């Protein structure tokens, strides 16, 4: 009997509803991921304390708690300690991200690049696409 795997869940934490919807729709249409969307850093911390996800796409500037605060809170819990995080930001935080060895994409971003990075992090990118 073949066991069906559930789609990988991805949490998108982005306070701009248009950008959050754009990313969620693209994930639904172009990948096997199941996106969840939150617009506040504190809500993300609470969600991640109760739910497991395969990847977090995290805006830097958020109400409630900024992206680094959410990231730091994730690293304090066994459930989320090793969950990959992809930051998206319009702020020039390159030095901080590089110092912490964090993956980030600057806004405005190319949606295809974002999707490719998500698939790389999830391990779902087809081998032929990864080599091109």
How do the helices and strands line up, and which of them pair or pack?
Elements: E1 9-13, H1 17-30, E2 34-38, H2 41-50, E3 55-59, H3 67-74, E4 85-89, H4 94-99, E5 103-106, H5 111-122, H6 127-130
Parallel strand pairs: 1-2, 1-3, 3-4, 4-5
Helix pairs in contact: 2-3
Please provide the ordered H/E string of secondary-structure elements.
Answer: EHEHEHEHEHH
How would you state the average pLDDT, rounded?
91
CATH class: Alpha Beta
Give the neighbour order of strands across the main sheet: 2-1-3-4-5
Number of strands: 5
The total number of structural domains is 1
Shape: globular
Total DSSP helices: 6
CATH-defined fold name: Rossmann fold
Query: Radius of gyration, Cα only, in angstroms?
Result: 14 Å
The CATH superfamily bears the name Response regulator
Which residues form runs of ≥5 with pLDDT under 50?
A: none
Distance between the termini: 35 Å
Biggest beta sheet summary: 5 strands, parallel
**Class based on secondary structure composition and strand pairing:** alpha/beta
Helix content: 40-55%
Assigned CATH architecture:
3-Layer(aba) Sandwich
Strand percentage lies at: 15-25%
């Amino acid at each position: 009997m073949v066991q069906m795997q559930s789609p990988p869940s991805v949490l998108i934490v982005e306070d701009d509803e248009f950008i959050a919807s754009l990313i969620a729709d693209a994930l639904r249409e172009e990948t096997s991921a199941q996106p969840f969307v939150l617009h506040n850093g504190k809500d993300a911390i609470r969600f991640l304390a109760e739910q497991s996800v395969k990847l977090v796409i995290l805006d830097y500037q958020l109400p409630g708690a900024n992206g680094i605060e959410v990231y730091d809170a994730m690293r304090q819990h066994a459930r989320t300690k090793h969950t990959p995080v992809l930051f998206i930001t319009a702020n020039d935080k390159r030095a901080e991200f590089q110092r912490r060895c964090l993956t980030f994409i600057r806004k405005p971003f190319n949606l295809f690049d974002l999707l490719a990075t998500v698939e790389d992090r999830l391990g779902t990118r087809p081998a032929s696409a990864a080599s091109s």
